[in-house]
Amino acid sequence: MSPYYLLDHDAPLPEVFSQVGWDVARYIIAVGAVCGLSTSLLGAMFPLPRVIYAMASDGLLFQFLGTVSERFKTPVAGTLLSGLFAGFMAMMFDLKELVDMMSIGTLLAYTLVAVSVLLLRYRVNSFNQYRADDGDSLILNDTSSVGYLQQMFNHKLRTPTHLSETVSFWNITIICVLIIAESLILIFLEDFISSGVWWSIALVSVVGLLIFILVYSTWLQPQNQDLVNFKVPLLPILPVISVFVNVYLMLKLSSATWIRFGVWMFLGMKKKAVLREKPVTVWSFRRKACLGALFVMYALLVVPCVIDLVNNLISSRELDKKLYTIQF
Which residue intervals define the domain Cationic amino acid transporter C-terminal in the entry (predicted)? Predict the structure, then answer.
């Protein structure tokens, strides 16, 4: 209907119908988009105050955010402030920055879920960790019966033991580290790989081979035999693929998104560590929470501006060099 380079970045589909003379379809699509966005916004307004209520009850947020209204039986303050904060973020930041910030948190959550599935599936069952299945003999001292390297390729074990759990844990840990390394190689050496440079292809192949060996070793380990309603199939292949895709997409995001995410995670972990170490008074909690909120706003507003300023300076210098080269 229209060449891709003539598409509008903000509303491509309505503009395409407008260019071919279908103005009625343009307005129908616009109304449908508004209805779809309204549905998503209404759906997001209900769970967010509940999450804020749970965090306020645990002491991670202001206490008044967890106050339930006697009339409406809902956390009114949390609902109002979450809506105002969402509107403020939409007013201050570009849509791409908000989408990136949401994406990195969602991808990290999916990655943690996939890793948790792997760890839980290969852990020792506390109820029958010394009981063997299908007539196997009892395993009472697994660390002395087989070595670690032998257990990497499963020394005739069918029931999880402490040694097999340790092997699985380190396999999964090293797999995650190698996945991060493989993703970085694919991102930063993309031009060399696409050009067929032998050392870049060899580097990708070596890291991929190590990941395959560790995945195969994890696949050979005995799995937990707990009876549950549902178990993730194709372990450990499916969770490893999920981790790889999520990590690769996270590393493709901008540096400003990583800075915002790092500041947010640092404040959350710092606050949780303070709550674990010692009880805090109401005044100290509110003071630290206010300082943390100010620091978050500073990071969200000032740091991206500094990054954009540095990028603009670098771009201007590169442009000056090109102009100087052309002149002389």
Answer: 230-269
